[in-house]
Amino acid sequence: MLPDSSLDNEEHAMSGSINRVLVVDDSRLQRRILVASLQKWGFDVVEAESGAAAMEICRQDPPDLILSDWMMPGMNGLEFCQAFREQSKDNYAYFILLTSKSEKNEVAEGLDAGADDFLTKPVSSDELRARISAGERILKMQRELSEKNRIVSDTLDELQSVYDAIDQDLIQARKIQESLVPELSKEFGSSTVSLLLKPCGHIGGDLVGMFCPGVNRIGFYSIDVSGHGITSAMMTARLGGYLSSTYFDQNVGMEQRFKRFYALRQPDEVARLLNARLIADTGIEEYFTMAYCIVDLRSGVLKMVQAGHPHPLLLRRDGSTEFLGKGGVPIGLVPDISYSQEEVVLEKGDRLLLYSDGFTEARLENGEMLEVEGLLDLISKCDSRQSGKEFLDDLYWNLTQILSQEYGLEDDVSATLFEYEGP
């Protein structure tokens, strides 16, 4: 029997997380003794004479605390504990086994079954109260943790919803960005311009393109906007309008003459006009590098401006290579700057490759960057008899085979290939 204690006279309930207590014992006398003390302490007490009856109570209204005898006919306390834990994974209750067992292996068996604590019969009122207080502290912490986990889970669900919405927006943004490059390969007479655009994310800050105001005159370019992501992509959309292949009246690279036809502006003038527009736009911190070329298909004369972009690579028909340009200043950094222009004469079978630094700054397995020497090596692995589009796809595939698996593609990769085949 429970010995007398001054705590038995307390009329108020214990504060905390435990309100409802289930007492399970096949002895009516033992149940009455436990129930009397628990009710004096202010608990809502229910009782069961067997493990099976206790399981039915737990199914209908799970308690906060369970006091269960170990030795009972039918389902014993250990089996009841195991069944309760399997059923009530979401509603944790503190489980105390009442037993005369004290061997370490038996205690371990009870803990493995899911019991939280043990009380040895006959049960002391003071010890019972102390064990319930300890259980209440543990249960309170467990429920606080569960509530925090619920809040975290709800927050993650909300973040997932926001992410999914952003992801859908980015997918749509990518479609819009892809519309800036409607054709990846186009023939101009017997010559061809081919384009490659591979963002490292949903959207990117690289832009390639071409336009033709009339027979035997074409312009093409490769642009790399500073930074990554949405801001850079918005800038490429703006630049796509400035160099539109459809609306010549908006294209900075063209000017109307005699209200009859459009002519190509000189590359250095195009760079200057673009620089003036970006500098004039307050609040814009982005800048971009660019290689922009125009070519007369009759003579093979190609004029080019390089504004901080990687040096264009001239691939001669005889297999020799030459990097063109002197560097230059990116567009949108310095106001009122002039840009130098270079000129080269192409022979039939020559090709000119404009590319972004996503190629040369790609990180390899050894941690080093590809650099221009690595680019030349990649090009040497491509079949020169391929079409321009096949050549660029092969070049990109060769790059992916040597990329660092740890870092992957860290920057957008883009290229423009011009193949000259004479007038």
Automatic annotation (TrEMBL):
Coiled-coil residue windows: none
Originating species: Pseudophaeobacter arcticus
Keyword Phosphoprotein recorded: yes
Residue span(s) of domain Response regulatory: 20-136
Protein name in UniProt: SpoIIE family protein phosphatase
PROSITE patterns attached to this UniProt entry: RESPONSE_REGULATORY
KW Nucleotide-binding (keyword) present: no
Alphabetized PANTHER family for the sequence: STAGE II SPORULATION PROTEIN E, STAGE II SPORULATION PROTEIN E-RELATED
4-aspartylphosphate: residues bearing it: 69
Lineage summary: Bacteria, Pseudomonadati, Pseudomonadota, Alphaproteobacteria, Rhodobacterales
UniProt keyword terms in alphabetical order: Hydrolase, Phosphoprotein
